[in-house]
Specification:
Elements lengths: L5 H42 L2
C-alpha cells in the first residue's frame, strides 16, 4: 500500500474540491440555461395569445 506524504494528500484533496466546484458551476449554468429556455418559450406563447 502506497503511503502519500501530507503535501501530496493535500494536493489531491484540493483537486477533488476543484472538481466539485467545477461540477457546481456546470450545474448552475445548466439551470440558468434551462430557465432562460423555458422563459423564452413562455414569452413566445404569451405573444400569440
Amino acid at each position: 500500500m502506497k503511503v502519500l506524504g501530507e503535501e501530496q494528500t493535500l494536493y489531491q484533496f484540493d483537486l477533488i474540491l476543484a472538481q466539485f466546484e467545477g461540477v457546481n458551476l456546470t450545474l448552475t449554468a445548466l439551470k440558468i440555461y434551462y430557465l432562460e429556455h423555458i422563459n423564452s418559450k413562455i414569452s413566445a406563447l404569451l405573444i400569440w395569445m
